[in-house]
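name: query_chain
kind: protein
chains: 1
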Amino acid sequence: KSPIDAEKFGIGMVHQHFMLTPTLNLIENIAIAKTNALQGKKARSDLRLDVLALMERTGLEVPLGAKIETLSVGEQQRAEILRALMSGSNYLILDEPTANLAPSEVAVLLPQIRLIAKRDNIGVVIITHHLDEVLDVADEIVVLRDGNYVGKASPSKTTTEDLARMMVGHNVKAHQHEMSSNYGDTNLIE
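structure:
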């Protein structure tokens, strides 16, 4: 019914448009979500140690003292994921996690997410239109159209064209198109 209910059930959401408070650092952003986190220096110190341990375990690194607004987009994405994991999430929903990342950042982030899912036994749902990334990272693909279940696909037994057809309901041609931006190749559907 609400984000609070989702958190109670161990569901963490990382939105495409970041939700962290830009004028605070990562520790302060995590503390906002943890009701007892800022009760004295000992609690802040413990929280900092917990975040450092999580960063080491996941490979998701963020400068802890830096305000969120000073971080790169990739660092902000990692901070969002770390905050969700710090809330005790057993399931992560990542909405377009690579939409604003450079290809080099995507190449690092997706394997880290896959490692977290396998090692920490966390269910990860990635909502994306980047079909090549879906095929690279997913164990199972579920396609929804207009909020309705269309079907499942195995990444090893499907193509971007198959997925595009499932997504729009008719044959389409998915192809690589060079975007005139700093983000490199992006999958488009004709």
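note: The chain has seven helices and seven strands.
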